[in-house]
Amino acid sequence: MALGYVRPARPDDAGEIARIQLATWRAAYRRILPRHVLDNLDEAYLARRWDAAVRQPPGGTHRVLVAVEQAEQSYLVGFAASGPADAEALAPNEPAGSLGADVVAVTDLLVEPRWGRRGHGSRLLAASVDLWREDGFGRAVAWVFDGDEASRKFLTTTGWEPDGAARALDVDDMLVPQLRLHVAVPTEPVEPAG
To answer: Which of 14, 15, 60, 192 satisfies CB 3.0 to 4.6 Å to 50 for a cystine?
Structure first.
């Protein structure tokens, strides 16, 4: 069993979060997104964005959490980011505010593939849910790529389900379909699986 834990991200984690994001996207999305788009992602740019998200979140309920694997030394192996649902959480032509003020949107939930199946995703999700409950959120939503079977399976096995919303992202003139999943935020603490 993996020894690991979840903690709030710190500014000095930004570079490692960007590296994990890039490595995970290049492995998990290589059949979903155009290769040249993945190859041209700028790790330094991503690190600056993560630094800003950690140092200056838009509000107190915007969170970035990191998963840490403990071995001879500790490694950052994954991260989750979430905040109140905004325009980015809406489906095309869905009216502003239709999700409600008690809805949180997951923008990222990634574990680097080489650290997968060790409980890090479950710990990230459980820690996020605990914070969402404390913050008064009653429901969570997340967009996933239609072709991202691993993320869909992970979320649906923890109770998430499609809410009927769909969209297609225009990625360098290629439309990439996504569907939105949702789940009620449990009123009691959740134990991570694994």
So the answer is: 14
